[in-house]
Amino acid sequence: MNRILLLIGVVLSIARPAEGGELRLWPAAHPTHAVASAQTPSPKGPHVRPLQSFADALGVRLGGASDQAVFDAAEAAMKATPGGLYVKVPPGRYRLHRIRFGSNSGYYSEAPQTVVLEQMRSSTSSEDTVFVALNDPYATNWLFWGFTLDGGWQYGRRPYADHPEQDPWLDHQHALSLTNTLSGVNDRKYRENSPIGAQNPRGRYGELLIANFGGDGLRAAGAGAQTVSAIQIFNVGGRGVAWTTYDNNASLIDIGGTGREGFYCGPNCGNNRLDTVKIWYSGIRRIAGASAGLLIDRGASNRLVGLQIQDTAGDGVVLDGGYDNSLDLGVQWQGEIAWMDAPVAALTLKGALFNRVTMNVSIPRYAAQRYPAVTRLLDDQIGPDKTASITNIIDILSDLPPEVAIVSHPLALSNRLTVNGSIR
Questions:
Q1: Of 259, 286, 405, nearest in space to 346 by CA
Q2: pLDDT 10s digits, 272-294
Q3: CA distance linking residue 167 with residue 129, whole number of Å
Q4: pLDDT surpassing 50 at residue 366
Q5: How far apart are the C-alpha atoms of 379 and 357, rounded to whole Å?
Q6: DSSP 165
Q7: 67-80 vs 51-58: helix axis angle to the nearest 10?
Q8: What's the whole-number average pLDDT of the chain?
């Protein structure tokens, strides 16, 4: 006990402030603990400011010709504010060329779907090919929540009605692009930007309606660990979602009326978890080989549950070199489809390895004669690197008419295929 009391006395003696000073139990240069004092004030954050305050500072009206200047001022303030800055956007329609934000920053609406952000296509700047994007490759802890993004685009718009594929905005007008640098355990930049020292970005985005863009609806690449929720995407000339990112959690995604694949999961698309996703009317541009509902292109270890694919112009799902993916889904054709990328299968394997697929495949009886292009449940093809599909477990429940073949040709023996309870 005497030793403990002596130790306490020594600590208090060392920590005793000088005359008129203050007591500090942490040294001023401690690497992880900032000490607030009158002499060395520490920044507080993150901060929140209404968008109206930037308009007031510029002396302009929101919802008018100066909206881009207001958002540019907000972006500059985000970069200059220690600790981060989030901007609250009031209800209204804003016409803009572009929106950018970075670490510990972002935009959110006062009430979801009351704010419409409309892209002005008149700009010729190459920066305007992406409407909303991150401005920092090491952005972390960002937020984009509660908006309608309207690109003002339509397939076959004037003056391209007779030659719609000549439209320069096709595949070059993307709505939302969230691209980060790939993360490594020895990379300190994410940790330095993160308020909690996280290795991954940890951004959040959701409650979004994205429509009328000539390119992709949502693009995400690089380091992930994002939280994604409640997004509707329709009438886009490219892909609804194009992911080459990993470690994300997403739910309640609705994708429809896409020119290319509904959802593309490409290289580095791995360890993602998706729940309750619907994809409908993909492939409306009639591009052969680019009209599937879901394309997993070398993506690995993704978990998809509650996926519904409806009325695709191409295959329902394509696993092209995919590895260790788990899918629980339904594929259905029931609507009016003017063109199909024949022959169409509910599931196509191309050199796929160690995947597990559980799927229901259906064509309602009243529509059974509408889809002669749907010729098989499963199409097995050699992959791009000349590898066969092996060690996949596929369980299909189907009501397709008897003229639809089960499989294009016998699978490798290491695969297990079950159709309506019978092993094939």
A1: 405
A2: 999 999 999 999 999 999 999 99
A3: 13
A4: yes
A5: 14
A6: G
A7: 110
A8: 87
Q: How far apart are alpha carbons 213 and 14 in whole angstroms? A: 65
Q: Which of 174, 302, 317 lies closest to 250, judged by CA? A: 302
In whole angstroms, what is the distance from residue 261 CA to residue 166 CA?
A: 20
Tokens representing 410 are 């016998």
For 417, other C-beta atoms within 10 Å of its C-beta total 20
SS3 state at 289:
coil
Q: Cα(325)–Cα(272) distance, rounded to whole angstroms?
A: 10
Asked if 28 contacts 35 with a C-beta cutoff of 8 angstroms, the reply is: yes
The residues with which 243 forms a beta bridge, in sequence order, are 220, 265
pLDDT in tens, 30-73: 333 333 333 333 456 679 999 999 999 999 999 999 999 999 99
The predicted-structure confidence for 133-181, as pLDDT tens digits, reads as follows 999 989 999 999 999 999 999 999 999 999 999 999 999 999 999 998 8
Burial of 13 (0-12, 13-18, 19+ CB in 10 A): exposed
Contact yes or no for 132/176 (Cβ under 8 A): yes
- Helix and strand numbers (H, E) in the chain are 4, 28
pLDDT value for 189:
85
Cα–Cα distance for residue pair 417/143, rounded to 1 Å: 43
DSSP 85: E
End-to-end CA distance of the chain: 78
